[in-house]
Each structure stands twice: as structure tokens, then as C-alpha cells.
Specification:
There is one protein chain. By secondary structure, this protein is α+β, with helices and mostly antiparallel strands. The protein contains 7 helices and 9 strands, in the order H-E-E-E-E-E-E-E-H-E-E-H-H-H-H-H. The longest helix is centred in the C-terminal third of the chain and has 28 residues. The radius of gyration is 19 Å and the shape is globular.
Length: 257
């Protein structure tokens, strides 16, 4: 998986008309990566008196450059958010991996490679547990927030596509890997982990969690104002859905059409 992930990021570099080694300086010589086996119990296993919710993992973005997920059981539950803010099912397909772009890659490419906002819904009662095996590509925690030199014509191409579509991205998760906010990728990564796992933050990083919650509260207020304006302008309907007629994720990201 280590070789697969570095090969994949080298192909991303070539697609951006960069040398295949463009991202090599952000990895340690013996780079560590992370792999987990995750079990999502179905809702019947929730403790009595707990709030009945389908949320297995809340909306989030991964920290590093790329991550790779093997959906090891037949259950649905993984969803990705498209540009209009809609949640799209990512059903398991045998023999495949789901690839997500991390905030690190978005930061290093001036936003060209947009990080994937995703979430997991727990299986319904009686469906049994869902299993997944994610592999998170590591990155040097001491790496600074440098940008790779994405050619201007490539950046212009992206802007032109977005302009023609007339879509401003609606995202439920704040992009936190902002240059100037952090000294190193490690600082941003730790904050993102606390954001995704507040229970760990409560115990070990209460100061970081406090700052995270203050930012979330501020951003929620900003988002609400933007949505109110969009409803008035007719950009989205009262349920927060886009009104431009586009339906599929493939159309949104340019895979088809």
C-alpha cells in the first residue's frame, strides 16, 4: 500500500504537468503510514437510552495527501459530498478501493486537488456490523506549507470549468490546512484529528478542542448567512439542494458529460 499510494501521488503530479517526484519532498525517507480495521455496529447495538442516530462517523476530511478504503462488507454507509452539498452513496464494489483526497494535497496544490468531504452512516438495526479497512498515506510532520508549482494554464483550466458550471462549492466541513495558519503539516494534522475525534481531544488536547469548537461555531454562523442569501437568490431551494438541475456526482466532477 505504501508503494501504491506514492505511485498514485506521482501520477497526480504528472497529471498536473509536474515531475513525478514533485511530492517526494513531503515524505520522510522511511515514511510511516496508518492502516486500521474499523467495525461499525448496527443500530441495535447502541446502548439503551442513547440517542438513536445513524451517524457512524461525522462529516470530515482526511488530513494527509491521499487515503484508500477497502469496504470489506456488503453494507452501504459511506457517502461523499458533491459540489452542491448533496451526500452521494459510495456503495461497495468488489475488488476496488475508494480513494479520497486529503487536505494536505489540497493545500500543496493551491486548492486544485479538492479534499474529499465524506461521512459514514451506521447500518440499520438487524443488518449486522459494517467493516472497512482504510489506509492513510503518511506525510512528514515536519514538512512546511510549501506549494508545488502547478502551471498557470492548469489552474486556469480548472477555474474555467467551475465558471462554466456556475457552481460555488457547498461544503459541510471547513478546510483547515490554510497556509499561514500553521507552521508545519504536523500541527494541522493534529488539529484535524482532534476535530474528527472530540472524545480524544477532551481527554488529551482540551486547549486544541476549545479552539476547534470556537472556529466551528463561527463558521456555522457564516454558513447560515450564506445559505439564507442563496435561498433568496434562488441558487438553492429551501432544503439546501442545488437548483441548477445537475444530479449525479459524475457530472459534478467531470467524469462524464
Amino acid at each position: 500500500m505504501s508503494t501504491l499510494s506514492t505511485t498514485f501521488t506521482s501520477l497526480i503530479a504528472e497529471a498536473l504537468q509536474l515531475p513525478s517526484t514533485a511530492f517526494d519532498r513531503f515524505f520522510d525517507a522511511n515514511q510511516q503510514h496508518k492502516l486500521k480495521i474499523i467495525k461499525y455496529p448496527d443500530l441495535s447495538f447502541l446502548p439503551k437510552g442513547s440517542q438513536q442516530t445513524q451517524q457512524g462517523v461525522g462529516p470530515h476530511k482526511d488530513s494527509m495527501l491521499t487515503s484508500y478504503l477497502l469496504q470489506a462488507s456488503h453494507h452501504r454507509g459511506l457517502q461523499a459530498q458533491n459540489l452542491s452539498g448533496q451526500w452521494i452513496d459510495c456503495p461497495p464494489i468488489p475488488g476496488t478501493l475508494v480513494v479520497a483526497i486529503g487536505q494536505g494535497l489540497e493545500a500543496l496544490t493551491h486548492g486544485f486537488c479538492a479534499s474529499t468531504t465524506h461521512r459514514v452512516l451506521s447500518p440499520a438495526a438487524g443488518e449486522g456490523p459494517r467493516f472497512s479497512i482504510p489506509f492513510f498515506q503518511g506525510v512528514s510532520y515536519d514538512a512546511t506549507f510549501e506549494h508545488v508549482d502547478v502551471p498557470k494554464e492548469i489552474m486556469a483550466m480548472r477555474e474555467e470549468i467551475l465558471r462554466k458550471r456556475g457552481v460555488d462549492r457547498r461544503d459541510d466541513v471547513e478546510f483547515t490546512f490554510t497556509k499561514g495558519k500553521w507552521g508545519h503539516l504536523g500541527e494541522a494534522t493534529l488539529t484535524n484529528r482532534v476535530r474528527s475525534h472530540p472524545d480524544v481531544g477532551e481527554r488529551w488536547y482540551p486547549d486544541i478542542l476549545k479552539r476547534v469548537r470556537e472556529e466551528q461555531k463561527k463558521n456555522e454562523g457564516k454558513k447560515k448567512k450564506e445559505e439564507d442569501v442563496a435561498v433568496k437568490d434562488g441558487t438553492i431551494d429551501g432544503e439546501g439542494k442545488g437548483t441548477d438541475g445537475w444530479k449525479s456526482l459524475a457530472e459534478r466532477i467531470g467524469v462524464v458529460g
